[in-house]
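#dry-run=false #mode=assembly
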Amino acid sequence: MTTPRVAASPAAFVSSAGPAPLAHARVAGSGLGRRRGRSAAAWRKRAEIAFFVAPALVLFLMFVVWPIITAVQISLYKWKGIGPLVDFVGLHNYVSVLTNQLFTDALTHNLIIIVVSIAVQLPLGLGIALLLNRKMWGQGLLRTLIFVPYVLSEVVAGVVWRQLLVPTYGGVDAIARFLHIPTPQQGFLGTPDIALWTVLFVLTWKYLGLAVILFLAGLQGVPEDLYEAAQLDGASWWQVQRKITVPLLGPTVRTWAFLSMIGSLQIFDMVWILTGGGPIGRTSTMATFLIYQGTKSQAFGIASAASVILFVIALVLAVAYQQLVLRRDTRPDQPRRKAKR
Amino acid sequence: MSATTLTRHAAPAAVRRPRRFDLKPSTAAVYFVALVVVALTLGPVIYGVLGGFRTNAQIAENPAALPHPWVLFNYTGVLTNPDFWRYALNSTGIAVITTALVVICGIMAAYPLARYEFKYREGVFMVFVVGLLFPASVAIIPLFILITQNFHLGNTWIGIALPQAAFALPTTVVILRPFLVALPKELEEAAQLDGASRIGFFWRILLPLSGPGMVTVGVLAFVGSWNAYLLPLLLLGPQNKTLPLGVADFSSEHGSDTAGVFAFTSLAMIPALVFFLAMQKRIVSGLQGAVKG
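#status=ok
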């Protein structure tokens, strides 16, 4: 499966479950487990554990962990992809990646995608989720339909959007003409100053449904009696949302924001299909940079250094976010954060 | 919880009528917003599907019109194209192998991580959790070398399925573990009293009860594999392309045949869409279970 890009794959959808299960660690336990039984029983248990865990662990170590370690190794060499690793260059590849304007531009684009994704999808997704969180006819159907873009592969969605955005003959230009809105001559994807925003628009279209579904799932967890109490106190709908719903949705929103950030760092398919990183590198991301270096230029050392940098950024971001933001959600004794004003 | 509920006492007349025809301004506004959102999300998809029923001349003349007349030859052209079926077969084969690997390895690993007590349990679990952070692109070059040169599995179904399954495992384990933890302890004790070993418990009780959890992770793995692009792009030759690769190639080779591209793309999106929508209820409830723990 591909990765948890902005949620680029269903994997990301689910990995929302990430932090939650940790809380269960201590609850788990085998009723069959004897306290330090005879050693034969202990060995039997070890063998059972090994038997059950081994396939997954071997698969994971062999096809995920080992390649990443190898990537670190390759990043220290100048290597064209053939023959043994002999040309050791130390950190030279890292220096050339980090001083390469193409890479720093790509990194900047990744950061813009992170910020804009959250700034746009959070209010929109929250608004739509709050509106749909009521007993109404067709609610299930509406939820499903909003989720459709998320289920499509990025390639399929990207190809449809590329056709829609073709200058003059695309559907978007036709609608703009009908509404007398001027459109860029080279198209939305071909004009350097507009291309990244167009890609962001398509990404929002693709991933808004995920935010809505996750927020709706979180809303299921808000206790009904809170609403009843608010109703007795004569609170308006708006007050109820602001004072009760949104604060209680905090953990869901924070988990979603985390997924969105990690996914934005890894974004590849959509950009590759829509623009290939162009025009003149204005929509490139770290992933398109490293794939380009690896496949088109055969510069595997450079590409590996870029991939390690990408990984380290993701890791640092994840650890920092876990420590600074998500931590409060795993401490039950902590009082809930108050809504902002 | 909503305006409807809050005003219930003020408007008893509304109770008698069926709710669904209750068109108060607030409800109407919600429907309006919802319909706008749905139009925006579905618009491009519907445009693509309808585009397949038009001719290129129609599209060039008025890009935003309905098909007139409706033509079928774009779709029949794709459906009689042997390449399309070969891509579909490759996608299916790879997705099935990936799903099987993920579900089998995932449930096996989740069992001891959920219900055994041993020293390195949290450590092993953390290895998988950290795996959630690994984008496939980071490991893609060594993975390419490993699959093609070390295992000679380049251009094969299993060569794609193995790494795809490996990358899907973290999610799977993270979803399945709380699911297995939640099974009541009494079941295990009862099984023990009846003389079942832990492996017997796994086979006879845990596996049947884990059906919904396995469906959730299975569907996610299947759709993920079906939609995957980067790994197949690097590992598969022209004969063994999957549908996303086929769509990407077709659209760049036949760029001027807009209607043909729409038809090809529309047909390629159907299986994942149908599969996911059919399973949607179970997926969402499975995820809620995992999120709530």
